[in-house]
């Protein structure tokens, strides 16, 4: 799979921070969740006929970047926040509606970075970087980066 420019830039930031072997590009949501979705609460299944249908959805969905611990267990998923303007993609809406709750169920932190915040991280004139953003999120107990 090829990365877009912004994805490659974020990948570089994440690998500089966590190490190249700790950042996985486009890992399936099902794999991030441990390969199965047993005992998924009913609210997470909203819009799905069954836990099996939710599992099939999770197998098709991918997380932009997954940061894993030394034992290869997923710890953090980092994605860009969707910016809905003129066209709203139903698949993207489902992704951003279901994925955060699903990851929370298995103890994996989910962070979305707004494009304008990411642009600020790339701007040498701005005193803002990935570490500052992550510190702010973890200190504040929030689960999303930027505004949507």
Strand and helix layout:
Blueprint: H1 5-18, E1 23-28, H2 29-32, H3 51-60, E2 62-68, E3 74-80, H4 90-105, E4 109-113, H5 115-122, H6 130-140
Parallel strand pairs: 3-4
Antiparallel strand pairs: 1-2, 2-3
Question: In brief, what are we looking at here?
Answer:
43% of the residues lie in helices and 17% in strands.
3D architecture notes:
This protein is of the alpha+beta class. It contains six helices and four strands, in the order αβααββαβαα. The chain has a four-stranded mixed β-sheet, sandwiched between helices. A hairpin with a 5-residue loop joins strand 2 (62-68) and strand 3.
Number of helices: 6
Query: Which structural class do you get from the secondary structure elements?
Result: alpha+beta
Strand content bin: 15-25%
Oligomer description: single chain
DSSP helix fraction: 40-55%
The biggest sheet amounts to: 4 strands, mixed
Mean pLDDT: 86
Helix and strand pattern: HEHHEEHEHH
Q: What spatial order of strands do you see in the largest sheet?
A: 1-2-3-4
Overall radius of gyration: 16 Å
Distance from first to last alpha carbon:
27 Å
Low-confidence stretches: 141-148
Total number of strands: 4
* Overall morphology: globular
């Amino acid at each position: 799979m090829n990365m877009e420019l912004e994805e490659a830039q974020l990948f570089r930031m994440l690998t500089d921070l966590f190490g190249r072997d700790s950042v996985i590009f486009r890992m399936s949501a099902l794999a991030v969740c441990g390969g199965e979705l047993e005992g998924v609460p009913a609210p997470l299944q909203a819009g799905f006929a069954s836990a099996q249908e939710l599992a099939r959805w999770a197998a098709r969905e991918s997380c932009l970047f997954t940061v894993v611990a030394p034992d290869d267990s997923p710890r953090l998923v980092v994605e860009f926040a969707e910016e809905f303007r003129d066209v709203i993609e139903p698949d993207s809406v489902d992704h951003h509606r279901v994925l955060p709750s699903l990851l929370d169920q298995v103890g994996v932190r989910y962070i979305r970075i707004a494009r304008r915040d990411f642009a600020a991280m790339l701007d040498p004139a701005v005193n803002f970087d990935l570490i500052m953003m992550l510190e702010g999120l973890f200190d504040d107990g929030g689960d999303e980066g930027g505004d949507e």
